[in-house]
Design a protein that fits this description.
Helix content is 0%, strand content 27%. It has no helices and 6 strands.
């Protein structure tokens, strides 16, 4: 029985030019839907935070959804 390691997985070919400006990550969900994820926003004076999950193209990704999370290149930590 063979085990797939993350290093053996081909990363998605995400076209970041198609991403919203504030998108930080792209990932595919278990059901095959892809989303852009944005940096969490903190609500001032509260303990609440929220982040955007916006529909995204699948970019032809057919790999395991569990390995699809891709961070936007060249973005500083926000």
């Amino acid at each position: 029985m063979s085990t797939i390691t993350r290093s053996a997985v081909v990363p998605p070919a995400v076209d970041w030019a198609a991403a919203p400006r504030h998108a930080r990550w792209w990932a595919m969900e278990e059901g095959g839907e892809a989303f852009w994820y944005c940096v969490p926003q903190l609500a001032p004076m509260t303990g609440f935070w929220f982040c955007d999950q916006l529909p995204a193209p699948g970019f032809g990704y057919t790999g395991n959804w569990q390995y699809s999370l891709t961070e936007r290149p060249g973005r500083p930590n926000e």
